Amino acid sequence: MKRVCTYFMSSLMIAIILVSMSACGNSKAGQTEMSAETAVESQTATVEQTTEIEEQVYNSGNENAGNSEPVAEPEPEPARPVIICIDPGHGGSEEGTKETYDGNLVMEKNLNARIASSLKSYLEQYNNVQVILTRSSDVNMGLGERMNYAASNNADYFISVHVNSRSQDEVNSTGSMVLMSCSRYQPSNAKVSSLYDTERLLAKSILSKLNGLGLLIANDFNVENTEGILQRPTTVGETYPDGSPADYYGLIYRGTNAGIPTIIVEHAFLSNESDYRNFLCTDAKLDALARADAEGIAAALGL
Ligand SMILES: [Zn+2]
After folding, report:
1. H or E element: which one contains 267?
2. Domain of 53, in residue numbers
3. Distance between CA atoms of 194 and 185, rounded to whole angstroms?
4. How far is the CA of 222 from the centre of ligand 1 (A)?
5. How many domains does the chain have?
6. 169 CA to middle of ligand 1, Å?
7. Segment 226-263, tens digit of pLDDT
């Protein structure tokens, strides 16, 4: 009995709604110009809309009948996605470091591109994340151009993907390191409450995941006592507006000024044959690095 009553009310409400819809002439005016294909889509949409109306009316009928079943709250607006800019280092005529193994010239720019595109795929598996790549083909791109691209696309984080080469002291360098800002300068347009703390959190989290693959903290003289984090101030006396020394690395300097937490991940040493064979010599191994990066980023950002 209650159901019959509800259906009666549903029909009544639909009739009222359809009458009021037909009175809204403006929204229908464009239909005469639709192509056949669009018209079919439009019909489908109309059927779906009608079903939705029926569901709404059904709920409304229940409410009127004094039913205490809760009516579904309207869906909240989806949160703005976290935008992560991934930057495959080098490209085009800038090949990065290179070595010959098994008769093949291996170029850093290509390894970076593989890790970066794979990292994008892994990160996109998390909810509410948007990933952009500074380059998706083998082209030259300046550091300023890369950061401008990130800033103009409202990136919240900037992760530059690299592979390392033998350090200046000629030790047989091996392992991973992350470069971040040496300054606590915090511009007014900063995306986070502390660029410095955010970069450090990202760096440690990514290093932890890379370590989990067996890629240890680099034995480079600059980082062996800093848990794999390299912070390097300029050598020519530049400063940030707060008077602190500017960063030596141009990308990090630009990231700080853009207010975007920026790190450079040096995954392994291409110059070290063991690193190459263990971590860089196949797409599957590069994908494993990317996966570790993604897990480290996700853990740091709470994705
Ligand atoms: Zn590089």
Report:
1. strand 262-269
2. 2-64
3. 9
4. 17
5. 2
6. 18
7. 899 999 999 999 999 999 999 999 999 999 999 999 99
